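Lab notebook: predicted structure, single chain.

Context: the supervisor wants predicted structures on file for every construct in the current expression panel, including those that have not yet been purified. This is the next one on the list. No modifications to the sequence; it matches the entry in the shared construct table.
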Amino acid sequence: MKNHLLTYGSFSEYEIDKIVNEYSEELTFKKRDYIVTAGEVSHYQYFILEGCMRGFIIDYQGKEHNIIFGFEDFWFGDMESFDSGKAAIYNFQALEPLKLLAISKENWDKISTEIPSFIAYKCKLFQNAMMFQQMRIAEHLTQSAEQRYYNLLQKYPDVIFRISLKNIASYLGISPEFVSILRKRAVQK
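Prediction complete. Output recorded below exactly as produced.
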């Protein structure tokens, strides 16, 4: 986490130590464990130290839709639930064993008060998240499934080794069979 804090913010060693060791707690989850479940309040923001997760919603017909994948050095959580105390609408599930740093709402607010540079860091995180979501929506509406697949591989080259075809297909909005065809085409190129 130290490298992430220094990449996107300006922190002293003391501030980093305080964030990581005083205000964060390390949690581990097994593959398939739920970190956040829709309908419950999300009390933490999570930073991935090791592993991979998916964030998904369930539609009115009970179908899962993957919205995001998270790998090492990635923040996640249901921000609205975390901030407002309302029930989460997102589910977050471990796709691999996960080692996380978790920061509670109380500590998140304390960090923001005691370490002013954390506010600028959060702004950068939110700005990056907003740009990512805007790009994801634009890609989904303007690109073919094949283009979206290749974009995913470009951004996350090891995604095909870490995430199942079913989960990739859900993320791209296509069938697992078509992902298999795209994977074969990619290998042939």
